[in-house]
Amino acid sequence: MSFTVSHGNGIAVKYKNQTILLDPNFSDFTSIVSHAHSDHCPEEIIKKPYCTEETAEFANIRNPSFHSHVMKEGKSMKFDGFSVKLISAGHILGSTQTVIEADGKSILYTGDFKVRENLTCKKIDIQHADVLITEATYGYPAYQIPDSEIVRREFVKWVEEQLKKNKKINVGAYSLGKAQEAIKILNDAKIVPQVSDMVRKFSESYRKFGIKLDFLEKDEDGEVFIKPMHVIPQTKSDFVNCVLTGWAVSRDYGCQGFALSDHADFRELMEFVEAVNPKRVYCVHGYENVLAKEIRRRLKIQASTLTHRQQKLLTDFS
Ligand SMILES: [Zn+2]
C-alpha cells in the first residue's frame, strides 16, 4: 500500500499523491485542526482547514484571521480517496481525534486527549485503528495523575479554607479548557469566581455551546480570581495562589498545585493504546521515546517515534 506518514508541517498523511495535514503550522493542503490550543492551530491559513464548530469559534477568538470549514463530529467526509471522520478526544470542548481511512486501512491521530471524564466537554470516543499516531505528553511511567474527583475535592477544600481565613485567591489555569473546568468546579461548590478577560471570552463561548458557567461581571469584586497560569507569580502578595495543572505531580510552582490534567497520564495512554489495538503506533509530542519503548515492552505492539522531518512508509503492517 502507498500510505506514508511524516512529521514536519504538522503530521502529514499521504496516499497516492494526495496529502492530509493534521494540526499543521501552515494549512497549504487539506488540513484538519484537532482543537483550538495555539500549538495545534495553523499560524497561517493558506487553504481553509476543517474542524468542529467549537474549535472554529475558539481559534477565531485567539486569531481573528482564522477561517475554517466546519466538520460535524462523527460524520465521514471524502477527500480525494481518503475518508475522514472526527471523533471526540475528551481534551477540551470541541477537541477531536481524526480517523483517516483509505484502501481498507485506518489511521487514527489523537491530537491531545484524555480518557477520564471532564466536567465541561464530551468524554473520549475510543475506536480501533490499524495505525495509531498518539500524543505522548505524559508518556513517562512516573506520570500517574490522581483520580480527578479526588483532585477536585482537594481543590475545593483548600479554596474554602482560604475563604474562611478571609484570603483572596488566584487560581492559575490555561485560559481555554482548564479555566472553564475550574469555574464549573467552583460553581458546583456554590462559588462564583471573577475571571480575566481572555478566560471570560472563552467562557462566554462555552455558554453559547450549552455549558453552564457562572462568573462575575467585569466590574464586580470577587474573592476567587481565575487567570492564566503565567501571571500567577506576578500577582500581589495579599492573594494566596494556586495552579491547576497535571505537571503539579512533579513540578514546584512556588504555590499550591492541584494535578488537574486535560491529558492522558501514563496509565491512560497504555490503556488507550491497548483499547485501540493497532498494529503500529507512532508517538509524538512529549515523552515519545519512552512511550514507544513502553508500548513495545508492555503491549508487544510495534511502536516508534515520529520525530520532526521523519517519514515512514506504512508498508510494515498488513
Ligand atoms: Zn491541547
State the CATH topology of the largest domain.
Answer: Metallo-beta-lactamase, Chain A
Strand content: 25-35%
CATH-wise, what's the superfamily of the largest domain? Answer: Ribonuclease Z/Hydroxyacylglutathione hydrolase-like
- Supply the helix-strand structural class: alpha/beta
The number of domains is: 2
Hetero groups in this structure are: zinc ion
Described by its quaternary structure, the protein is single chain
Query: Shape from CA axes?
Result: globular
Kindly provide the radius of gyration, computed on alpha-carbon positions and rounded to a whole number of angstroms.
Answer: 20 Å
Distance between the termini: 9 Å
CATH level-two architecture of the largest domain: 4-Layer Sandwich
**Mean pLDDT across all residues, rounded?**
92
How many strands?
19
Placed side by side, the strands forming the largest sheet appear as: 7-8-9-10-11-17-18
Helices, strands, pairings?
Layout: E1 3-8, E2 10-15, E3 18-22, E4 30-32, E5 50-51, H1 53-62, E6 69-70, E7 77-79, E8 82-88, E9 96-102, E10 105-109, E11 131-136, H2 148-164, E12 168-172, H3 178-188, E13 194-195, H4 197-208, E14 224-227, E15 239-244, E16 256-258, H5 266-276, E17 280-286, H6 288-299, E18 302-305, E19 310-313
Parallel strand pairs: 3-4, 5-6, 10-11, 11-17, 12-14, 12-15, 13-14, 15-16, 17-18
Antiparallel strand pairs: 1-2, 1-19, 2-3, 7-8, 8-9, 9-10
Helix pairs in contact: 1-4, 5-6
The structure holds zinc ion.
Zinc ion binds at residues 35, 37, 40, 91, 112.
